[in-house]
């Protein structure tokens, strides 16, 4: 946990929603665990205990509160801040890797034995990879139970359970209800049988203007469609394809998913949460940055700024390479040409204007030199990087160690420190990367009275650690003058 026991008690006593997702609060007498902001009567301190994860509470025999639904909260910001084994493992477990490849596959991806991984996760998070994956499956099953009219047997398969019996037993153990009782509490599923409707929670404040503006400026025709109040895009997922439409609300992002294979629900949700940086702790970030005189006004103007992440590591790498030493508009046009030439067409069931996927690593490795517009050297870099991804020499996923990934990127011809740092910041969600060589950030630094020379800016920004990625977004905003965005009320 990021908080100690005494701070956790104070958070529960004050029902402080800022701590939702950072830990769970369990009541010994009722054997129920809750989010810190649960509206139920606060128990006596001696009757309370705290766990770092829902999986740890479940392993200790507690079941989820159906009043506050402690699984329906932002994820812990600790996983973005931590670059250690536990943090890297949690990002991959949330993406569904254990369900797809087992604990052995997760351990191999992280470079540890299954026994070492289980020991570390149990010691630090209170549950091993199987327990953490089980909690993840239960959460996604509840979403499908309450948000669709699917048959329970189909939900069991989609959520990653090996049998209907295992699904029923897990729902009873975690929620103290049957699947039918959970569905009846929330009413009938939505009218559109092919869609899954979700609320992606975040910790306020949330700078919707910044994220949606960033994505709108870089939106690639056919792959994405962005307006002030809607972001839509296609998704390449482990079991198939999908499309997502997201709209900013007062306390969450409304999300509608159309998935070719519902087993991809967990991966889709995890990747969209990373794209919008929804698990961030904006109060901690804003408090730290506002303490610096140069950023006080910037934080007041744009509270809750986010660092846009990634739904596809290869796509982010190619975007970054094509953005080298050119304007955002030029890079966007080049990406549009590439997607039109090599991206596969898909259905657009939501009518959102997204009908192409980003090209595969194999397609880019074979055809990038002819399909990538601009200098031949840039096309060669894309082809070499894609070949490394296709061959497994370059792995672009959020469970990577930052320094190892950076070194692998720098080994590709045409990739320098700016590109490597930009990719690691977005793909890994690294919170402490300042792109001091970026021209726009340097202009923003000058606007805030900071040194604009990269070496001097790096030295000045040391005091902003571990939030230098967020400081960089403030500098970018200062350079572009991004305005606020009104959100829908519900």
From TrEMBL:
Pfam families: Ada_Zn_binding, AlkA_N, HTH_18. InterPro entries: Ada-like_dom_sf, Ada_DNA_repair_Zn-bd, AlkA_N, AlkA_N_sf, Alkylbase_DNA_Glycosylase/TA, DNA_glycosylase, HhH-GPD_domain, HhH_base_excis_C. This is DNA-3-methyladenine glycosylase II. GO terms for molecular function: alkylated DNA binding; DNA-3-methyladenine glycosylase activity; DNA-7-methylguanine glycosylase activity; DNA-binding transcription factor activity; methyltransferase activity; sequence-specific DNA binding; zinc ion binding. GO terms for cellular component: cytoplasm; protein-DNA complex. It catalyses: Hydrolysis of alkylated DNA, releasing 3-methyladenine, 3-methylguanine, 7-methylguanine and 7-methyladenine. Gene3D superfamilies: DNA Methylphosphotriester Repair Domain, DNA-3-methyladenine glycosylase AlkA, N-terminal domain, Helix-hairpin-Helix base-excision DNA repair enzymes (C-terminal), Homeodomain-like, Hypothetical protein, domain 2. The lineage of its organism: Bacteria, Bacillati, Actinomycetota, Actinomycetes, Pseudonocardiales. PROSITE patterns: HTH_ARAC_FAMILY_1, HTH_ARAC_FAMILY_2. Residues 87-185 form the HTH araC/xylS-type domain. GO terms for biological process: base-excision repair, AP site formation; DNA alkylation repair; methylation. Keywords: Activator, DNA damage, DNA repair, DNA-binding, Metal-binding, Methyltransferase, Transcription, Transcription regulation, Transferase, Zinc. Its cofactor is Zn(2+).
């Amino acid at each position: 946990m990021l908080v100690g026991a005494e701070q956790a008690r104070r958070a529960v006593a004050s029902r402080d929603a800022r701590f939702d997702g950072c830990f769970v609060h369990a009541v010994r007498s009722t054997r129920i665990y809750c989010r810190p902001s649960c509206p139920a009567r606060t128990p006596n301190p001696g009757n309370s205990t705290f766990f770092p994860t829902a999986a740890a509470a479940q392993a200790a025999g507690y079941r989820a509160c159906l009043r506050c639904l402690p699984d329906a909260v932002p994820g812990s910001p600790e996983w973005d801040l931590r670059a250690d084994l536990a943090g890297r493992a949690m990002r991959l477990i949330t993406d569904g890797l254990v369900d797809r490849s087992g604990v052995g596959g997760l351990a191999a991806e992280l470079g540890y034995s299954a026994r070492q991984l289980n020991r570390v996760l149990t010691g630090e998070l209170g549950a091993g990879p199987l327990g953490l994956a089980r909690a993840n499956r239960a959460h996604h099953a509840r979403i499908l139970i309450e948000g669709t009219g699917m048959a329970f047997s189909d939900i069991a398969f989609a959520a990653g359970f090996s049998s209907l019996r295992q699904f029923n037993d897990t729902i009873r153990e975690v929620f103290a209800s049957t699947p039918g009782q959970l569905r009846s509490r929330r009413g009938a599923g939505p009218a559109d049988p092919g869609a899954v409707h979700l609320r992606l929670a975040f910790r306020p404040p949330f700078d919707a203007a910044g994220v949606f503006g960033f994505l709108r400026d870089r939106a690639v025709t056919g792959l994405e469609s962005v307006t002030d109040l809607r972001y839509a895009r296609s998704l390449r997922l482990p079991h198939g394809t999908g499309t997502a439409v997201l709209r900013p609300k007062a306390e969450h992002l409304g999300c509608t998913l159309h998935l070719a294979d519902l087993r991809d629900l967990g991966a889709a949700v995890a990747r969209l949460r990373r794209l919008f940086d929804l698990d961030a702790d904006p109060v901690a970030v804003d408090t730290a940055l506002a303490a610096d005189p140069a950023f006080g006004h910037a934080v007041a103007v744009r509270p809750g700024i986010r660092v846009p992440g990634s739904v596809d590591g290869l796509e982010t790498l190619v975007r970054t390479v094509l953005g080298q030493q050119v304007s955002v508009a030029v890079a966007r046009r080049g990406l549009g040409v590439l997607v039109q030439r090599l991206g596969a067409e898909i259905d657009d069931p939501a009518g959102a204007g997204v009908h192409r996927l980003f090209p595969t690593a194999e397609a880019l490795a074979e055809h990038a030199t002819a399909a990538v517009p601009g200098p031949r050297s840039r096309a060669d870099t894309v082809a070499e990087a894609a070949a490394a991804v296709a061959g497994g020499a370059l792995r672009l996923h959020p469970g990577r160690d930052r320094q190892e990934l950076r070194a692998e990127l720098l080994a590709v011809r045409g990739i320098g420190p700016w590109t490597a740092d930009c990719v690691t910041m977005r793909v890994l969600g690294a919170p402490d990367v300042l792109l001091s060589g970026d021209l726009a950030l340097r202009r923003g630094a000058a606007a805030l009275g900071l040194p604009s020379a990269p070496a001097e800016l790096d030295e000045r920004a040391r005091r902003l650690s571990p939030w230098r990625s967020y400081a960089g977004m403030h500098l970018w905003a200062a350079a572009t003058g991004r305005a606020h965005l009104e959100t829908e009320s519900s």
